[in-house]
Amino acid sequence: AEALESSLEKLKDEKHIFKTLNGDLSIYTSDILYFEFMDRNVCIKTFDTKYKTTIRRFKDIEDEFSSKGFILIYRGCMVNVNYIKSIGNLDITLDNNERLPVSRYRIDEVKKSFIKVARRG
User: Fold this and answer.
1) Cβ–Cβ < 8 Å for 118, 109
2) By Cβ atoms counted within 10 A, which residue in 58, 60, 92, 97 is the most buried?
3) Domains of the chain
4) What tens digit of pLDDT does each residue of 24-42 get?
C-alpha cells in the first residue's frame, strides 16, 4: 500500500515540459490549476501566471492529464480537481477564487470527482 501511495505522489508531481511562445516551460503537475483552449492554442493557468503553449490539439492534453487528477468541465477546459473549492449549479470556484463555467453535461461527473477528492482529504 505504501508503494502505491508513493507512486501516486510521484505521478501527481511529475514535471512536464511545454513549449510556449517564449521558449520551454518546465512545470509540476501540482502547480497547474487548469488548461484552457484559447485562440487556437492551449493555455496553462497556475496560481500566478497564464502561459500560452504552442499546443494546438486540446485532445493531447485530455489524453495525458485525465489520469492525473484533471477533469474536463467543458469542451476546451480541464481543471485540476484538487483545486476546486466549491461547486455551484453550473460553475465551480477554484482555490484562487476564480469562477469557471461547467457544462451541464459534465456537472454530475465534476461533482463526483470533487466528492472523491474531498473524502480523500
Assistant:
1) no
2) 92
3) 2-120 (2.40.50.1020)
4) 999 999 999 999 999 999 9
